[in-house]
Design a protein that fits this description.
elongated, about 5% helix, single chain, mainly beta, about 260 residues
Length: about 260
Amino acid sequence: MSHEQCVHDTVVIPIMAAPSKEHSFPTVVLEHEMPDGTTHFDWLLGVDEDGKKPLISFRSDQRPDLLTNNKWVDLEPQPDHRPEYLTFEGPLEENQGTVKRLGVGAIQEWQQTMAGWQMMIEWEGGPTVPLEVTTGSVVRLRLIPNKKVEKSSDEIPVDGDLPISDAIGPAGLTRKITAFGSKVKHEETWSRVPNTTGTGAIHVRTFHSKLTDDALKYLDQQVNEWLDDHPQYEVKQVTTTIGTFTGKVKEPHVICQVWV
């Protein structure tokens, strides 16, 4: 069996109905023994109740189903795996080693937070546990002891700073994170609603990137994805300028403001 299906540059999940206790999403932890004798764990997450779509996948040196404290565990994003891996065991094609199923679970809640995701997973033969995953340039997992899944991580006791408080993507842009079961549309928090009359801009979104070819391509991607995610918006005006961003180093950025 082939070990992978496709690669995604960032950790992104599609907008769809959220899982629940009655309609949970499948997840599995595999032990992957490589041809050189080394081993690691693959954590695969289904994004639909039937487990028919490609699986979000992470590699870890620790089993995600056996966490006992709130210490951060590093995760390495992997190519999406085929849904067959929810039940597959045995040798892999192309001399990629052997996998063995160690843990099977049901994702009962999956919500977006400021830092990434919070999840409630019932592990087969074990407890139902709340987990937090950061989904920026640093991807990590931890158990949230004695805490139910909530919509915001602001009040969660953290063992050290969240590792992606200022996370940016590979081209210097904030990574895009989408959420399951979003109940409130972005514009519902605005005091005015978007117009589609060609006049009357009421909201602005600012994008920026470094002045490199890859960064500008990523800027295009961010603007296009934002507009694709909000087809009810009508662009009224776009402004661009070049300015110096101050951080660890000072460097010129292109600043693009899209008015809707």
